[in-house]
């Protein structure tokens, strides 16, 4: 009987799992088995990158809906057996652009081979790649996809990590990001009086060593410490001098909240002050977008003599932290369930609605509205 039992068991093990009440997976023609782009796949996935290179204006596209998020870790939800398609949910709100705020994969390594493997995993993720083929997507990185253990500008393989980022996001050779150090970029959409400027900051490539350790970062008052580095600061000043009615600035880490001990701009308070001074002098209304925290919230800072600024944190499409946390600048409640973010601009009423939405169903979890000021 043993040979018969083994034969039956072997036969059962050979049955593909999708034959039991599941649809078979569809092979993605854009990538090979290793996740590398097949011929033609790169061109299809990179059509928007070629259409919208950085540091330029695109008056033909007036923005009214922007989606954003961070911390894409599909493996965690697949292991839990709950594979909902977050990209389908985001697409349902009909965003005109998507902003990825970092931790776009979780290689968690300082080894180029493992970082490359992280991007191959994204290439093989069909819902994600389908979304990018339909929605213009602009990205920056954070620690899990740049390099583990927060090496900043001292990362030995920083140039290789940057090359992998630029390749994955199909940044064309004509794009300014190909000829400078760092993945930061800027785009202006629409015409006066309905212009939106999107700025994506690189908080790693030029950053000094962080003060403290993960979960216990302190504030370092040294004015010489930098997040962005001299060249990126010079570039940012130039971008903020351009006219726009609304500015959306993407940062891998929170700009406004500073009462926790995790990574935040207040680790270098002089850098945070400089950033807030710059946006305070710029025309229009500024909204920061941030990731990293594995929680969602909206922060608002209003100081005398300045226009209010907000920071919308959207971090965790699938996995979040549930602990409470103090933030005296928070508007509304702390979100500790899977989510993404959205901005909805009403040019007729001159308002912008900031929202954190459930990544399962697209329902609004918290929202806040601000006027668009000159």
Brief overview:
By secondary structure, the chain is of the alpha/beta class. Helices cover 26% and strands 22% of the residues.
Q: What's the helix and strand layout?
A:
Blueprint: H1 2-14, H2 41-45, H3 47-51, E1 56-58, E2 65-69, H4 74-79, H5 86-92, E3 97-100, H6 112-123, H7 126-134, E4 137-139, H8 143-146, H9 158-168, E5 185-189, E6 196-200, E7 212-213, E8 216-217, H10 229-240, E9 246-251, H11 269-281, E10 285-290, E11 296-301, E12 309-313, E13 330-335, E14 339-346, E15 351-358, E16 364-371
Parallel strand pairs: 1-5, 2-3, 3-4, 6-9, 9-10, 10-12
Antiparallel strand pairs: 2-14, 5-6, 7-8, 11-12, 11-13, 14-15, 15-16
Helix pairs in contact: 6-9
Could you please describe the fold and organization of this structure?
It is built from eleven helices and 16 strands. By secondary structure, the chain is α/β, with parallel strands linked by helices. The strands form three sheets. An eight-stranded mixed sheet has the order 1-5-6-9-10-12-11-13, with no helix packed on it. Helix 11 (269-281) links the parallel strand 9 and strand 10. The longest helix has 13 residues, at 2-14. The chain starts with a helix and ends with a strand. Mean pLDDT is 88; it is low at 1-43.
């Amino acid at each position: 009987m043993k040979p018969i039992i083994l034969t039956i068991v072997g036969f059962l093990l050979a049955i593909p799992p999708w034959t039991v009440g599941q649809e078979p997976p569809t092979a993605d023609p854009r990538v090979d088995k290793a996740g590398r782009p097949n011929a033609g796949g790169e061109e299809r996935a990179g059509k928007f990158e070629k259409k919208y290179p950085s540091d330029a204006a695109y008056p033909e596209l007036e923005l009214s809906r922007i989606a954003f998020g961070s911390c894409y870790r599909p493996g965690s939800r697949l292991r839990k057996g709950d594979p909902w398609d977050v990209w389908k949910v985001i697409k349902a709100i009909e965003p005109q652009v998507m902003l990825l705020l970092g931790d776009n994969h979780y290689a968690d390594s300082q080894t180029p081979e493992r970082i490359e493997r992280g991007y191959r995993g994204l290439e093989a993720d069909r819902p994600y790649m389908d979304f990018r083929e339909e929605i213009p997507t602009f990205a920056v990185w954070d620690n899990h996809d740049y390099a583990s253990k927060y090496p900043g500008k001292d990362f030995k393989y920083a140039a290789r990590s940057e090359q992998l980022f630029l390749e994955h996001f199909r940044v064309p050779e004509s794009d300014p990001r190909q000829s400078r150090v760092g993945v930061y970029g800027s785009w202006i959409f629409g015409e006066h009086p309905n212009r939106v400027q999107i700025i994506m900051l690189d908080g790693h490539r030029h950053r000094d060593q962080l003060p403290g350790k993960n979960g216990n970062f302190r504030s370092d008052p040294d004015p010489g410490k930098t997040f962005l580095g001299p060249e990126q600061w010079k570039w940012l000043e130039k971008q903020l001098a351009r006219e726009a009615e609304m500015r959306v600035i993407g940062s891998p880490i929170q700009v406004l909240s500073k009462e926790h001990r995790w990574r935040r701009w207040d680790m270098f308070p002089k850098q945070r002050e400089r950033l807030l001074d710059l946006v305070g002098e710029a025309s229009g209304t500024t909204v920061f977008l941030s990731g990293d925290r594995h929680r969602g919230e909206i922060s608002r800072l209003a100081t005398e003599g300045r226009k209010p600024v907000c920071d919308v944190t959207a971090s965790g499409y699938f996995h979040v932290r549930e602990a409470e946390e103090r933030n005296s600048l928070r508007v509304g409640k702390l979100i500790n369930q899977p989510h993404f973010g959205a901005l909805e601009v009403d040019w007729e009423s001159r308002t912008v609605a900031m929202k954190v939405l459930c990544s399962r169903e697209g329902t609004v979890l918290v929202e806040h509205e601000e006027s668009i000021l000159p």
